Amino acid sequence: MDVELYSILLLPLCSAAIIALFLRSSKWGGATVSVTSAGIALAMAVAAMLSDAKIEAFESRHVLFSLGDFSMNFGVLFDPAAMNMLFVVCFVGFLIHVFSVGYMDKDPCKGRFFAGMSFFMFSMTGLVLSSNLFMMFVFWELVGFSSYALIAHYADTEAARAASKKAFIVNRVGDVGFLLGIIFCQAKFGTTSFSELSQILSQNPSQASTLMGLLLLCGFLGKSAQFPLQVWLPDAMAGPTPVSALIHAATMVAAGVFMLVRLSAVGMLAPDVLDTVAILCALMAFFAGLWALGQNDIKKILAYSTLAHLGLMGVGVSLGYDLAMYHLTMHAFFKATLFLVAGSIIHACCHEQDIYKMGGLFRRMPLTSFVGLLASLSIIAIPYFSGYYSKEAILAASFGKAHITGAVFDQIVFWLVMGAALLTPIYMGRLFFNVFLGKPNSEKAANAKESGIFMILPLLVLGIYSLAGGWSFAYDIFWLDGKMDGLLPSAATQFVGNMLEVHMPALESVQGAGLLAKLALSLTVLGLLAAYFLYGRNRGYDTLQRNVPILYDALKQHGWFDSLYDWYVAKVQQRFAVLLATFADMFLIELLFVRGIGAFCAVIGYGIKGLHVCSANSQVRWFAAGALLLFLLFVAF
Amino acid sequence: MDDFYIISIYAGVYVPLIFAVLLALIYPVAGGKAARVLGMTAASVSALASLAVWYGFLKLHSGSPNFAFTSDIADFLPALGVNGISVPFFALAGVVGFAAVYWACISDIKSVKAYMILLLFMQGGLMGVFASTNLLWIYMFHEFALVPTFVATCVWGGAGKRMAAMQMAVYLTLGALVSLVGIIALVVFSGSDGFGIGEIASALKSVELNASLQGWIFALLLFGLGTLVSLFPFYTWAPRGYSAAPTSFSMLHAGVLKKFGLYLLFQVCAPMLPAGLSEWVWCLAVLALFNVLYIGLVTMAQRDLKMMVSYSSVAHMGLCFLGLCSTSILGVGGALILMFGHGLSVALLFMLSNAVVNRTGQWDMRQMGGLYKKTPVLAAFFIAAIFASIGLPGFANFWGELSILVSLWNFSPAICALAALGLIISAIYGLRAVAWVFMGTPSEPLRRDFDSISDLSLRERFPAFVLIAALAFAGFFPWTIAEPVNANLSAQAVYNQSK
What we know:
A: three-stranded antiparallel β-sheet; B: mainly alpha; 20 helices; 1% strand; globular
């Protein structure tokens, strides 16, 4: 087991190193090596999951170094949660690698791109398999670096230059809190290993500290782009579209949720912390849905939608971590699909990203559009599509909690989530109607052609998962002697599945649960109708922008967070730094202190020099003065 | 087997010195090429010898807290030997020295013979600092390495070289003198017969120095050594000096020589003066925090590439000092790892900055831009160096910073949290530099000659690759530093107090 897991981890690293060292300028070499490594990693991951249907958990560790009584362990933990996440990462990752071969065909810096993708696969796999928090932090930083490097792929554009820097720094802000939380955990429990923490906390659950939880939460807020650190994610769309699909939609941003799931499963998150997660994420789920209506760039709309769904997962964590993992898996399928559809369109429309310059693509790119339709139906939670099951579960759990406790806080969270459920069909409808239906609104869209085989195949596979991925969890479908649970390996579904079996009956038995399902469905339909009347009929402009520009601008500013932070950076932080550099460093220390001492010595020396004139007169004067002084001293004593 | 490593230590220290003397003797007849060949030979021998010693120590004496490979050939020669703390730095001096001499050999330098003589003297002195078992000789070797820096800055330096050399000379001589007084006081009061570290330590076992005396001696040493390591507020020599000094000397000084003060503090002062340390520890913590936060912010305001690198090196020294605050194996061990990593990364940054400036003809980062299109390899090395220095896992610096922060939590969670803010600050100035220099489109002044800019040549890549490889090696195998360090620190009572 050890060997397989380490090769899943190290294969992409080797691929990245080989490409970076030898294949940078090769035309197809980089792509071949990278896709092969991703494919082998997927095959090995699936083989490991299928080999022995009942592995509960596998753990191994090696000491990386030790100083005093602290030792840094490099370990892998292959438990049901890791299997679920590993399947998502390897499967979606491999398909996106294949897609990239088509998407990046004309890019001159292909080698750099594929090296970055392989490096990302390495760091993400490592994050998933980490057996302790320090190791997770190591890979946490490495995925941050891959994200930085890949956002900066088109580094000559101003957008990529600013966005890559911003993404890394905003993440660092969260990471500092995360790191302090980890250090606190190490100081308090003497270990950060998940299995050992789980033992300690299961014996004494009251040891979970709120402060520690809040510090650890900072890492989630940065990586999963939640309030108030969400600003980097929409900007990160400056990277190539496969990167946005893999890193900024399906896997890396979900790593924050995965971390919370891990911590929640060992009982590290105190109730206060869970409440904080719930309200921050519910707000994000609602507002990101609103802000999506203020964007015309197809990738930005999807980015805001990712924010909203990450918020939904966060709410899921606070209600029962299995729900979060459930939605994470479904979201990875349908959001990766949507981004790849967007990528296919952008590629066909010569890098046009404005949805009001598209239109009529259903006839020109039927396969892409059909997959896009599947994924859209999935994201707006139409029954029997993947997205429906997980979203419905979260809604029901939220409703159940509000119903049982009756607290205002829980009611607010519930209605925010319902609001988010209403907004999803509106912004997705706006996107769908304007991009696929009607007639083309620009030359580029009119000349669009269906993409090649490398892009279509992964799209079709992902489209199937957007439709049917959820069936594995919702129904009992067993293939291959029960080793495959529908389209997913059974090992990957057991984490969510086992928990759901416990939770679902309770959720369904809450009074009004049936009504809730109907209400949610009617909200979806209502949202779709609203989207059609507001944005349908393919006008080539945004109705809101033309008729109520104030409202549109307010949405476009997405809460003025960027303006606030820009103001802080430019007007407060940088001015303070310049003040320190000029006043404190140059003036006080360098000029007054250092040169001041020099000048002081010079003045004294000059004065003393004046006393030492070499002439007979002065010698006589000094002699007389000295004699007088001696005489006075003699008299005095 | 020990004999081979003893000879290696001697070779590491004396070959550069002998070659420097040789070069001086044939000065009138030698040409620039001879100087380069001699320099490269000496630096290669030194580097290989130092790596051999590191390897040998790990293989034969890795669990031992004492000096190994010691020998006394003659009384008038310094007693050489390495222990767990000094052996990584002996190797560091060898590797960075190699890169610095190599860079000097491929650069276009006026009167290269004189330059090479100074550089080799410095290199020999540096190797000697970390291979001596005797305090007086450590100090002498340090002075040996220090003086060439002043001369070289005065002769080959850049803008503002006279003022910078002057300032550096005054500060560093003062710091060295004060610490010499401290060293002498330590030896005298311990009643030891000589300056050998082992002798003093064993003398101290029978003499109990009272706390206030320890406090005084420690204060002298902290002030003196702190100045040498650019502790706040005695740091102003560093940024100006490094910016003005010729590249190879900046690399050696910032990368290796500056570590002397911390090395002595960890190796000698803290174990021998525990009461003195605990008296001054809060003062040290506050001053070091100024290094991390205040200097960090000042670094953010820099526009000049070399100034930015210089200030960042001052800022990073703060974290190394903070490692001492918790007085634990973890903290000091972390500081030693960070010193090792920082030595490599800052040397690399000085070297690459020199390469950038050679290509653009500017110092101001905002006057550059878009370089990555023309110099992808240079950009890759630069980004790797910046990420190493801001603590990306995979490079040595990360393990150092992590260990220091973990240890600081036991000292004071508040100080730990404040020190952690340094991680954000360093990311801001580091990434901003990358964005300004390499990303975007070329600025107006650069655009004229943009097409003639060329990437790093193969021979320029070599030293950069060596340094990056060393950083990654220590990042992937941190035990190669941690194991000998741990064995040594575990034997010191001061680092084993239970908290």
